[in-house]
Amino acid sequence: MIATVMLLDKQDFDPQQKNEDILRELIDFYAESIKMLAFTYVKNWSAAEDITQDVFIKCYEKMEGFRGDSTYKTWLYKITRNKCKDYLKSKWYRSFIPTDFMKERFEATKEISTEDKVINKFDDLALSQKVLTLPTKYREVIILFYYEELKIKEIQTLTNLNADTIKTRLRRGKQMLQKNVERG
Length: 184
What we know:
Blueprint (H helix, E strand, L loop, with lengths): L18 H24 L2 H18 L9 H18 L1 H4 L19 H19 L3 H12 L4 H8 L3 H21 L1
């Protein structure tokens, strides 16, 4: 579903490279996936775009302190997750009812019939909407594992959860999705 993006580590950058240049490369590689991840939490495209901007501002501010214990992608996802949680706790959000719905996310790159395109897009949209109805703790690991293609270890670093807890949430989340699909 999501194109695989290079994982950039601290050693991938020239030590003489300016923080502005590194930030520009990180934005090029990760801005879209950060926005999608933020949307899965807040379910509002405008808020997801604002959070994405905040994430890269925070990234720039803290870049000197990045030790390289994880990849930039994992670090950015952790910042995104924290920004989303802060947003969801905010007084403004609690008084606001999100009304944005999932929009068309990706276009097929191979040639298929119009009928197949419509069916595939409907199925993807329906599944995406069902994923978004899951409780946050299940939705989070489902999206990180299946959509963002992070490994259990990376999710563990990002969420500070035990690997067994992540596996349990993945299993329960899939079971909930299966029940929702069977009902739908």
